[in-house]
Design a protein that fits this description.
Mean pLDDT: 95
Number of domains: 2
CATH class of the largest domain: Alpha Beta
Helix content: 10-25%
CATH topology of the largest domain: Diaminopimelate Epimerase, Chain A, domain 1
Shape: globular
CATH architecture of the largest domain: Roll
Structural class: alpha+beta
Order of helices and strands: EEHEEEHEEEEEHEEEHEEEE
Low-confidence stretches: 1-5
Number of helices: 4
Largest sheet: 17 strands, mixed
Strand content: 35-45%
């Protein structure tokens, strides 16, 4: 859905979700960028706006199919959003008939494929595991941070702090996530995950996203937890992750971390300024 010339007062958008992880999507291809922190906060208000976990703006990219910019509902920007990327890739492939896409983001170049059966795969790139790249405020072992519970730090273009616990369901995530999002070791704040190992290729995970709160799913968090589990030797490189909203398959390959799952279009709307 393309924006029309009336966008000065009327902004068309789509609402989509990946496993309950919901997004507002604004297509600004062929137009000037329109998003601001103020507009992101207004649209993100679930009581007075549209409500979303992240907002994505699609813009033109000279050497790719399109570029994506991601916003959190508090008006901050996110470098990556895996489920939103999958949703938009599915939408564009459906509209264009393409089965593969090249996408640019602040994270870098991403590639998406139609996986068949209504599934969409996105290569989220290689994880970053050095303390400077995540980034951390000081040098630390990213496989065992000096935080109670010895979580793992990973960047998928945004910082992640992954705790492996006996029972992810037993953690009071609202208090736990809020406390660790603002931990001083993470100068840019962090996404927080609690995960339990069900088997050598199976994880249960719950998510607290920085700038958002508890979400039913998170693509970049799923990638980060899969990488962390593999680095710790808890699982192999290909795992099934059960989230509150459904299941994602994560496959950490030589060319990056591939994420595969379902997407859904909810409705189209117009935001009136």
């Amino acid at each position: 859905m393309r924006l029309m010339n009336t966008r000065a007062t009327h902004i068309p958008f789509m609402k989509m979700h990946g496993l309950g992880n919901d997004f507002v999507i604004i297509d600004s291809r062929g137009q000037n960028r329109i998003m601001t922190a103020e507009l992101a906060r207004a649209m993100g208000d679930r009581h007075r706006g549209v409500g979303y976990d992240q907002l994505a703006e699609i813009t033109d990219a000279p050497e790719a199919d399109f570029h994506l910019t991601f916003w959190n509902s508090d008006g901050s920007q996110a470098g990556a959003c895996g489920n939103a990327t999958r949703c938009i890739a599915h939408h564009v492939m459906r509209d264009t008939g393409k089965t593969a896409l090249h996408i640019t983001t602040a994270r870098g170049d991403l590639y998406a494929l139609d996986a068949g059966g209504g599934l969409t795969s996105v290569n989220m790139g290689q994880p970053m595991t050095s303390w400077q790249d995540i980034p951390l405020a000081q040098e630390a072992d990213t496989l065992a941070l000096p935080i109670e519970g010895a979580p793992v730090a990973t960047s998928m273009g945004n910082p992640h702090c992954s705790f492996f616990v006996p029972d992810a369901e037993a953690v009071s995530l609202e208090a736990f996530g809020a406390a660790h999002e603002h931990h001083p070791l993470f100068p840019e704040r962090t996404n927080v995950q609690v995960a339990s190992v069900i088997g050598p290729d199976h994880l249960r995970m719950r998510v607290w996203e920085r700038g958002v709160g508890i979400t039913q799913a998170s693509g970049s968090s799923s990638c980060a937890v899969a990488v962390a589990a593999a680095r710790l030797g808890l699982t192999g490189h290909r795992v099934r992750i059960e989230l509150d909203g459904g299941t994602l398959m994560i496959d950490w390959r030589d060319d990056g971390v591939w994420m595969t799952g379902e997407t859904a279009h909810v409705f189209d709307g117009v935001w009136r300024l």
